[in-house]
Amino acid sequence: MTAPSTSRGPEGQPCVIALDVGGTSMKGALLDREMKPLGRLRRATPRRHGPEAVIAEIVAAVQALNEQAAGYGVSVRRVGVVVPGIVDEVAERAVYSANIGWENLALGSMLQEATGLPVSLGHDVRAGGAAEFRLGAARNARDVLFMPIGTGISAALFCDGRPVRGLGYAGELGHMSVEPGGELCACGARGCLETLASAAAITAAYSARSGRGVDGAAAVAALLTHGDPDAQAVWDRAVDALTTALAAVTTCFAPELIVLGGGLAQADGLLLDPLRARLMERLTFQRRPELVRSELGDEAGCLGAALMAWQAADDTTTGDDPCH
Ligand SMILES: [Zn+2]
């Protein structure tokens, strides 16, 4: 491992750089050991310009946070970067992301080389789930499903307190088939959960059904409260699809807690109440999970990236500290 050029004064407080790379924006922070933010950064993800542009922007964001750290006189111990798609955390490879367009990329070592800092690479949703698990809605649970619903749908599963990874392929709940022969999904299959219940699918379904444009799934949720019958029909279909997927996961993995995150969870009771009721109706003998909203919201991924970086920094310190 190359010696990193850390930014610190002799008595500099240790911190980590955390960066959550999303399809539209990147959220970064400098966090101390108590997970207190010492600095923040937000940038657009230039995904329309291709994966190389996204990688260059990740490097620039890490460098900007490193400069912030130098300005504050704090010492950067490690960088945690989390990205969407299929991520092999052990090999530190970004295996695939339809959204960003990279494939089988040794992203961890690339970022390490470009920034001169020690970098850990993780998956955005598993990192977000780990943050909910340690600091948020799932902190008292061991068997947990964390499912953010936004433009897409993904999930992180924790069984007996441990994340289920499957070389990075586990948790792709958005691509569970809930309507065989249904609409074509971006993944190439038909009738995936994502084609019915993602924020993007709800928005598109409402416009197609009503003939009226609508500004996102939150606007469809707002129309529900005004008794709009098209909004109700679209919402019911999404809730049914989510019920089918969650019932299957509950049957296989018996989570005690399901934490819903992402933009759609902001609909709160409009989503959680009917989903909870239908899931309980659907289950017979299974363990009955509690269904709650994420506590960390869109901070979860960034906090998870920081937890991952601290864990790796501590693991390294017990062996050979890369910072000294
Ligand atoms: Zn799919």
Summarize the structure in words.
The chain is of the alpha/beta class and 324 residues long. Helix content is 39%, strand content 21%. The strands form three sheets. Strands 3-2-1-4-8 form a five-stranded mixed sheet, with helices on both faces. The chain has a five-stranded mixed sheet with strand order 11-10-9-12-13, covered by helices on one side. It has a three-stranded antiparallel sheet with strand order 5-6-7, with no helix packed on it.
Describe what is shown at a glance.
The chain is built from nine helices and 13 strands. The protein is an alpha/beta fold and 324 residues long. Helix 7 crosses helix 8.
Tally the helices.
Answer: 9
CATH superfamily of the largest domain: ATPase, nucleotide binding domain
Shape: globular
CATH class of the largest domain: Alpha Beta
Helix percent reads 25-40%
CATH fold name of the largest domain: Nucleotidyltransferase, domain 5
Main sheet record: 5 strands, mixed
| Ions, cofactors and other bound molecules | zinc ion
| Average pLDDT figure | 93
